[in-house]
Specification:
Elements: H1 17-25, H2 32-47, H3 51-56, H4 64-78, H5 83-87, E1 89-92, E2 95-98, H6 111-118, E3 129-133, H7 139-147, E4 152-157, H8 160-172, E5 178-182, E6 199-204, H9 211-214, H10 237-249, E7 250-259, H11 265-274, E8 278-284, E9 290-296
Parallel strand pairs: 3-4, 3-6, 4-5, 6-7
Antiparallel strand pairs: 1-2, 7-9, 8-9
Helix pairs in contact: 1-2, 2-4, 6-7
Residues 103-104, 106, 110, 134-137, 139-140, 156-159, 162, 184-185, 205-207, 227-228 line the site of S-adenosylmethionine.
């Protein structure tokens, strides 16, 4: 249950790390272990030390401005806001990405999409063109750009606010092999920069939930942008739109990779096959759920 937060040391600059944690722990919201973890990560972030050093130096003084920020963030957490939005970043593919309420909080499952792209039989040290559709904070396209400096990544989203976050992330990672484009999937998409024989890889983590899913109570979903989550036609509308056009833009030896819901494997596979893709296979996430489908263009169809 959410509680009212009262400042224990309204004007003091003498509150310690252990007192700050003890204060915040009283306002436990949801799972106790998760709450402890979140407020420790939060305090560490606010005062600029690791979680471990909070315990190594419990008497360290939390300065008044740090305390004010910490207390404000605890209030936001207590109201149910996800930690990633409160601290303003998250980790993905061992890289640090800025996030805010304009973008989906990247999920660990989506690393499967990045890993699958890196495992494809495509040139790894030569220039190839890659298209990341629905880039959001940029995690998929930017992780690939980071891993493969010779690849040229085009990353598309129809949300200007999301693209601003992706641009900040590209800048922070020092990437110069990415171009960010505003658009409705493929609409108005310029041709690949370096070659006119299409993208070698198109990949997407599009919205694929149904409206009913997106309103799961008590979940972080209610804080996240609905346009990033929900798709018509039982969650299939955007997956189908992306598949329908993909072959026109793919290189003849190109690949299409799609993240989707655990219960959408058959629908996606059938649509890929009906659209003329071959070698369709589905990868499972760590929980064993169908999560990413991979398919190859074929020049013979
Ligand atoms: C599920 S989120 C994925 C974000 C990011 N790629 C990730 O994996 O964390 C889907 C993204 O698709 C974008 N999107 C939704 N509809 C779109 C459309 N018609 N055209 C382009 N992008 C769209 C949303 O703004 C959102 O950023």
């Amino acid at each position: 249950m959410k509680k009212n937060l009262h400042h224990p040391a309204e004007s003091s600059d003498e509150i310690s790390v252990s007192e700050s944690l003890a204060w915040a722990k009283k306002f436990q919201f949801g799972d106790a272990n998760l709450w402890s973890l979140e407020i420790e990560l939060l305090l560490g972030e606010v005062i600029g030390v690791s979680r471990e050093s909070l315990y190594a130096w419990p008497n360290r003084v939390v300065k008044s401005e740090q305390w004010a920020l910490f207390a404000d963030c605890v209030k936001r957490l207590n109201a149910g806001e996800p930690l990633e939005y409160v601290i303003g970043f998250c980790e993905f593919w061992s890289l640090k990405f800025k996030v805010n309420s304009s973008v989906l909080i990247p999920r660990p499952d989506t690393e499967l999409l990045v890993g699958a792209a890196l495992a494809l039989p495509v040139p790894t040290h030569e220039l190839i063109e890659v298209l990341d559709l629905g880039t959001g904070s940029g995690v998929v396209g930017l992780s690939l750009a980071y891993e493969k400096p010779s690849w040229q990544i085009s990353a598309v989203d129809n949300s200007p606010a999301a693209l601003e976050v992706a641009a900040d992330n590209a800048g922070a990672l020092g990437l110069n092999n990415v171009r960010l484009l505003e658009g409705d999937w493929y609409k108005n998409l310029p041709l690949p920069i370096e070659s006119n024989d299409g993208y070698r890889i198109i990949l997407a983590n599009p919205p694929y939930l149904t409206k009913e899913d997106a309103h799961l109570s008590g979940s972080s979903l209610s804080w996240e942008p609905i346009r990033a989550l929900v798709s018509e036609n039982n969650g299939f509308a955007d997956l189908y739109r992306i598949i329908r056009i993909a072959k026109k833009l793919l290189n003849l030896e190109g690949w299409l990779l799609l993240e989707h819901g655990y219960n959408q494997r058959v629908g996606v596979e059938n649509f890929l096959l009906d659209s003329g893709f071959v070698d369709v296979k589905c990868l499972r996430d760590v929980a064993g759920n169908a999560r990413v489908s991979v398919a190859r263009h074929t020049k013979f169809i």
